[in-house]
Design a protein that fits this description.
Layout: E1 3-9, H1 11-28, E2 34-40, H2 43-53, E3 60-68, E4 81-84, E5 94-102, H3 106-116, E6 122-130, E7 143-147, E8 153-154, E9 170-175
Parallel strand pairs: 2-3, 2-5, 5-6, 6-7
Antiparallel strand pairs: 1-9, 3-4, 8-9
Helix pairs in contact: 1-2
The structure holds inosinic acid and magnesium ion.
């Protein structure tokens, strides 16, 4: 299938927005520690940038997990599978899950349910992108950097068939 990638959000805009988000989170968590959970692989680029910008008076620890709801297609299968679990306990911690994108919301819904059972002190979600038009489950997200229309996007961690994660901007895949 032929397609092209059309820039949607430029690198500078993303970096500025992540700085704003980091300031906001730094204010909200002043005097506390933050345990960031990256949802692999897509959330990795975003979490690294966000973590670097958090106020340095706050202790930030990180951990990784992987869930899968997509194959190489552009539509969610609806099945969420934990592919890699966390290394450390989250009990009593202020957890922020960092995600690349919330689409149907199924992945985050099952992740947050699973993580709440492990008794964190608090649990919030910070996402780079949100596609609210595609939501099929109820999902409240505290921190959203960009709300985007219903387009399939790549870059800044997001892939199409595992490619384009390394693009420093967000682009929409337009099929011809
Ligand atoms: P959800 O469970 O439908 O919310 O799907 C979330 C996951 O689907 C994200 O973490 C991405 O891995 C993937 N995804 C959803 N929309 C896109 C997109 O536009 N581009 C790339 N991956 C996407
Ligand atoms: Mg993902």
């Amino acid at each position: 299938m032929n397609y092209k990638i059309v820039p949607l959000i430029y690198e500078e805009e993303i970096n500025n927005r992540i700085s704003e988000m980091a300031e906001c989170i730094s204010r909200d968590y002043a005097g506390q520690d933050i345990h960031m959970i990256c949802v692999l692989k897509g959330g990795a680029f975003f979490m690294c940038e966000l973590a670097k910008k958090i106020n340095q008076d706050i202790n930030v620890t990180i951990d990784f997990m992987a869930a899968s709801s997509y194959g190489s297609e552009t539509h969610s299968s609806g099945n969420v599978r934990i592919v890699k679990d966390l290394d450390e306990s989250i009990e009593g911690k202020n957890v922020i899950i960092t995600e690349d994108i919330i689409d149907s919301g199924r992945t985050l819904k099952s992740l947050t349910e699973l993580l709440w059972n492990r008794k964190p002190a608090s649990l919030e979600v910070c996402t780079l992108l949100d596609k609210p038009d595609r939501r099929v489950v109820d999902m409240v997200v505290k921190y959203t950097c960009f709300t985007i229309p219903d387009k399939f996007v790549v870059g800044y961690g997001l892939d199409y068939d595992q490619k384009y994660r390394n693009l420093p901007y967000i682009g929409a895949v337009e099929f011809e």
